[in-house]
């Protein structure tokens, strides 16, 4: 059976304590590999390697750092099929999704930031006859990057690439639930010739390796994507140590569909935004609000589309829905389905665990599920479920739907469907969401800031915002 290893100081190493965790394939419910159960010893070794590598790495010109990152991108593209198969096996998502979204985006992350660092400009202010004021942005130093299980390599590289491009050295922890592609990335980094210690990948649990990363005094910043409760814990731990924080947390995203929309496109895209990756994307639109004149029409077409979402083996080309990531997560989502019934919802589709035959008989599969008739302020409509469960709710006025859309603690993303340009701008500005899509979903320009409001996080990732996060400004004034 495959045993994954940590990547520390340019080498693949066993955990210091010799302990391993089972890695379960969601589609089968069976252990297929083991990962290091790392602890503070492993993190300390990784930090030591990163500190040793930092002086040379931060002095290396941005163009040379960039060439190495672009080379990593090229190797990811070369190994796309292998990485897609690994992501599907590890996460439960259809291999077709990993092949077309996850792995290409991971390559794009390295390619984008490999070149972006060369265009990262500082400010200069000239005081006529007095002084020249300019700003230099220095790498923070050693930073910690902790990524989630839903888009494993995609979000892992989303954090690592800008940190490396900015001249930082990294101690990174992928989710212990989906560690495989991070391990394969470490092999590609060795092949690339990335200097030893510049990137260190430590596998393990949040309370073990993750806690050691956020507590280590030499780690100057933490970039974390995951649940809001975990983000709160990280903030409580890191704030007294004055660490810089970027926290991309939960979402309960509204999808606002006005009567003047392109209905066919709204239905087609809403199916994706509801159930892509089995609803396990923080940007999924799980609360669908439909203007009353087209509510029944939208519902009929949406439910017809849901009926066509084949649940099956993620390795099979025809599968539109794969397995949920773990048995514990499946049970959590099922508990919210039970809660929806308790809160008076009417089940329109799904709601049941799916039992497949053959190799996937013990897998964690769930039908795409749709409810209506739930109050906008009920728990199912306020709490993050993070699974293939959505609610349909009719609305009558713009003011009403904005009140409902903003009526949760979260503020990550929202979608608007309308042909009225004035309304699109007006509603977008009124939404308490860090990201708003109009007549589309999940289109991401790597140059734009990414992040949420309220309990959906602190700070912004993406583009120059990421490079700013991993650097510290120094203002210098020279008298003329």
Please, could you describe this protein's structure?
The protein is α/β, with parallel strands linked by helices and 480 residues long. The protein has 2 domains: 2-249 and 456-479, 3-Layer(aba) Sandwich (Aldehyde Dehydrogenase, Chain A, domain 1); 254-438, Aldehyde Dehydrogenase, Chain A, domain 2. The chain has helices at 40-59, 62-78, 80-91, 95-116, 152-165, 180-192, 206-215, 228-238, 263-275, 295-307, 327-342, 379-382, 398-405, 421-430, 463-469; strands at 2-3, 6-8, 11-13, 20-25, 30-36, 124-127, 131-139, 142-146, 169-173, 199-201, 221-225, 244-248, 254-257, 287-291, 346-349, 353-354, 365-366, 369-372, 389-395, 410-411, 413-417, 435-438, 453-454, 457-458, 471-479. The strands form 7 sheets. Strands 15-18-19-14-13-21-22 form a 7-stranded mixed β-sheet, with helices on both faces. A hairpin with a 4-residue loop joins strand 4 (20-25) and strand 5 (30-36). Helix 3 (80-91) packs across helix 4 (95-116). It is globular and about 70 Å long. The N and C termini lie far apart (68 Å). The mean pLDDT is 97. GO terms for molecular function: aldehyde dehydrogenase [NAD(P)+] activity. Keywords: NAD, Oxidoreductase. Residues 19-475 form the Aldehyde dehydrogenase domain. It comes from Hymenobacter gummosus.
């Amino acid at each position: 059976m495959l045993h994954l290893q940590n990547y520390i100081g340019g080498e693949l190493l066993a955990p210091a304590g010799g302990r391993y965790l089972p890695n379960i394939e969601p589609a089968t419910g069976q252990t297929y590999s083991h990962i290091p159960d790392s602890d503070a010893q492993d993190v300390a070794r990784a930090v030591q390697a990163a500190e040793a590598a930092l002086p040379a790495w931060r002095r290396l010109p941005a163009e040379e750092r960039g060439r190495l990152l672009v080379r990593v991108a090229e190797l990811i593209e070369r190994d796309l099929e292998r990485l897609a198969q690994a992501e599907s096996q590890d996460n439960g998502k259809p291999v077709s999704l990993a092949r077309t979204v996850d792995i290409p985006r991971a390559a794009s992350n390295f390619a984008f930031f490999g070149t972006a660092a060369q265009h990262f400009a500082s400010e200069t202010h000239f005081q006529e006859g007095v002084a020249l004021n300019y700003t230099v942005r220095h790498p923070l130093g050693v930073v910690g990057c902790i990524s989630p299980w839903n888009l494993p390599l995609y979000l892992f590289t989303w954090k690592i690439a800008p940190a490396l491009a900015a001249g930082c050295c990294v101690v990174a922890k992928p989710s212990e639930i989906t560690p495989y592609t991070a391990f394969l990335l470490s092999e590609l980094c060795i092949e690339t010739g990335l200097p030893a210690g510049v990137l260190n990948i430590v596998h393990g649990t949040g309370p073990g390796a993750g806690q050691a990363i956020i507590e280590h005094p030499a780690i100057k910043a933490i970039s974390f994507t995951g649940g809001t409760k975990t983000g709160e814990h990280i903030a409580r731990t890191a704030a007294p140590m004055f660490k810089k924080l970027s926290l991309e947390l939960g979402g309960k995203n509204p999808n606002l569909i006005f009567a003047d929309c392109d209905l066919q496109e709204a239905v087609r895209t809403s199916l994706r935004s509801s159930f892509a990756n089995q609803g396990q994307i923080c940007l999924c639109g799980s609360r669908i609000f439909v203007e009353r004149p087209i509510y029944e029409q939208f519902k009929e077409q949406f439910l017809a589309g849901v009926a066509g979402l084949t649940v099956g083996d993620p390795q099979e080309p025809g599968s539109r829905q794969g397995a949920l990531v773990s048995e514990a997560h499946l049970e959590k989502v099922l508990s919210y389905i039970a809660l929806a019934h308790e809160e008076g919802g009417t089940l329109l589709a799904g709601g049941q665990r799916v039992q497949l035959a053959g190799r996937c008989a013990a897998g964690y599969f769930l039908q795409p599920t749709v409810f209506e008739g739930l109050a906008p302020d009920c728990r199912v409509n306020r709490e993050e479920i993070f699974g293939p469960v959505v609610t349909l709710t009719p609305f009558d006025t713009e003011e009403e739907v904005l009140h409902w859309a903003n009526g949760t603690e979260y503020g990550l993303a929202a979608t608007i469907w309308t042909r009225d340009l004035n309304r699109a701008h007006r509603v977008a500005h009124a939404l308490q969401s860090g990201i708003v899509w109009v007549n589309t979903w999940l289109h991401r320009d790597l140059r734009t800031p990414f992040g949420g409001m309220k309990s959906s996080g602190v700070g912004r990732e993406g583009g120059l915002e990421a490079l700013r996060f991993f650097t510290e400004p120094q203002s210098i004034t020279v008298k003329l």
